[in-house]
C-alpha cells in the first residue's frame, strides 16, 4: 500500500528534513504534495518523486492526502489541524508544533516508547526536540532501574531556532571575527562565542517554557505521575546543529553500569559511544546527520551512589527531535493499521 503524503512548511528547516527522511527511508509515497503560503505557491521543488509544484494551503485540498505533516507555527496548527482530522474525509495529521502536546485527547508520541498511542487519534503531536532526544536514553534506563528523579542540563544548537537561528549564528560569527558589531534578532543576546541560559520565555516558577516542556512532555510520553520530579536548565550554545544533554538520574533500584551500557547498546534509535580511553563520547560533530542518538559518559553518580547514574547524550534535533520522529510516527501507523490509504473514485 502506498500513500498520498502532504507536507505543510516544506521549505523550512524541519519541513526539508521531513521530505529528506521520507526519501531516504523509502516511505511508501504514491504522491507527494507540498503546501505553502501565497509567497511560495507556484514554485517547484525537486524531489525523489519528481518535481512538485507548491500549492497554496487549503484544508479541503490537504484532506485529499492520507497523511499530512505540519512543520509550521503553533498558531497555524491551532487554526487548521483539527479541521484536517475531522469529518468523513478526515486525514491523519502529524503536528510538529507545541499546539496540542498537552491536550488529553491528542497522543504525544515517541514511537519506540508509546507508539501504540497512535491508534487512538488521527491527530498526533510530535514532542519537543530536547525531550525526544533525552527520552531515547532515559526510557531504556527507566525500564531497567525505574526512574525516581531526573536532573538535566541541555546545550542546544542554533538550529533549534530554525534556519533563521543558524543564519544569525554564522553571520554573527563572521561579523565577530571581522571586528564588526554582532546583531541578535533571534536570540536574546549575541550567540557567537557565548552561551545563553535562556530558551523561550521565563515562567512564574523561574524556569523557561523550554525547560518546562521537557518536564511536562516526559511525564506524558512515559506515563509518569503528574508530580514526577524532573528539572531542566536549557542553554543555547554557538553550535550549528545537534543538541547535547547532561543527565543525572536517581533510580528506584540499584544501578549496574554494565547493564545500563548493554541496555542502551541494544535500544533502537540509540548508539552507545562510551569509550573514554579512546576519547570517544557523544558530540554534536558526530551526532549531526545521524538518525541515532549518541549516549555515553555513563558512570555511577557520586551524589546518589548505588541509586544514581550520570550520562551525556547528543542527538540531531532536526532529525530525531523533529523530522525523523514524525516519519517514524507515520511508519508506526502504517504498521498498526491506523494509517489507511483513502479510496479514490
Fold and architecture overview:
Pathway: Amino-acid biosynthesis; L-threonine biosynthesis; L-threonine from L-aspartate: step 2/5; Amino-acid biosynthesis; L-methionine biosynthesis via de novo pathway; L-homoserine from L-aspartate: step 2/3. The protein has 345 residues and is of the alpha/beta class. The chain folds into 2 domains: 3-127 and 323-336, NAD(P)-binding Rossmann-like Domain (Rossmann fold); 131-317, Dihydrodipicolinate Reductase, domain 2 (2-Layer Sandwich), CATH 3.30.360. Helix content is 32%, strand content 23%. The protein contains 10 helices and 14 strands. The protein has helices at residues 13-24, 59-62, 74-84, 111-114, 129-145, 162-177, 209-222, 257-266, 284-287, 319-336, and strands at residues 3-8, 29-36, 44-47, 50-53, 55-56, 67-70, 92-95, 123-125, 147-156, 230-236, 243-251, 270-272, 293-300, 308-315. A 6-stranded parallel sheet has the order 5-2-1-6-7-8, with helices on both faces. Strand 12 (270-272), helix 9 and strand 13 form a beta-alpha-beta unit. Helix 1 crosses helix 10 and helix 5 (129-145) packs across helix 10 (319-336). The mean pLDDT is 95.
Amino acid at each position: 500500500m502506498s500513500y498520498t503524503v502532504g507536507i505543510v512548511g516544506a521549505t523550512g528547516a524541519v519541513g526539508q528534513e521531513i521530505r529528506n527522511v521520507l526519501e531516504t527511508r523509502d516511505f511508501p509515497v504514491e504522491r507527494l504534495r507540498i503546501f505553502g503560503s501565497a509567497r511560495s505557491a507556484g514554485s517547484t521543488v525537486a524531489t525523489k518523486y519528481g518535481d512538485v509544484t507548491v500549492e497554496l494551503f487549503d484544508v479541503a485540498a490537504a484532506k485529499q492526502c492520507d497523511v499530512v505533516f505540519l512543520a509550521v507555527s503553533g498558531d497555524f496548527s491551532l487554526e487548521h489541524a483539527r479541521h484536517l482530522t475531522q469529518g468523513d474525509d478526515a486525514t491523519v495529521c502529524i503536528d510538529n508544533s507545541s499546539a496540542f502536546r498537552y491536550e488529553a485527547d491528542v497522543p504525544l508520541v515517541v514511537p519506540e516508547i508509546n507508539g501504540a498511542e497512535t491508534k487512538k487519534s488521527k491527530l498526533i503531536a510530535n514532542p519537543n526536540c530536547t525531550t525526544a532526544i533525552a527520552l531515547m536514553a532515559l526510557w531504556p534506563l527507566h525500564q531497567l532501574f525505574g526512574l525516581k528523579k531526573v536532573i538535566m542540563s541541555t546545550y542546544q544548537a542554533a538550529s533549534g531556532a530554525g534556519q533563521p537561528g543558524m543564519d544569525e549564528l554564522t553571520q554573527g560569527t563572521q561579523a565577530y571575527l571581522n571586528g564588526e558589531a554582532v546583531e541578535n534578532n533571534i536570540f536574546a543576546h549575541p550567540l557567537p562565542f557565548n552561551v545563553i541560559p535562556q530558551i523561550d520565555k521565563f515562567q512564574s516558577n523561574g524556569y523557561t517554557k523550554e525547560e518546562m516542556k521537557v518536564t511536562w512532555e516526559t511525564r506524558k510520553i512515559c506515563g509518569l505521575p503528574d508530580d514526577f520530579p524532573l528539572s531542566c536548565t536549557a542553554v543555547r550554545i554557538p553550535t550549528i546543529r545537534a543538541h547535547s544533554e547532561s543527565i543525572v538520574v536517581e533510580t528506584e533500584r540499584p544501578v549496574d553500569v554494565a547493564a545500563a551500557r548493554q541496555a542502551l547498546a541494544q535500544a533502537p534509535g540509540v548508539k552507545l559511544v562510551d569509550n573514554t580511553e579512546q576519547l570517544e563520547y557523544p558530540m554534536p560533530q558526530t551526532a549531526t546527520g545521524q538518525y541515532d542518538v549518541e549516549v555515553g559518559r555513563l558512570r555511577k553518580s557520586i551524589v546518589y551512589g548505588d541509586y544514581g547514574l550520570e550520562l551525556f547524550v547528543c542527538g540531531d534535533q532536526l532529525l530525531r527531535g523533529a523530522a525523523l520522529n514524525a516519519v517514524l510516527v507515520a511508519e508506526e501507523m502504517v504498521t498498526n493499521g491506523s494509517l489507511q490509504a483513502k479510496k479514490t473514485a
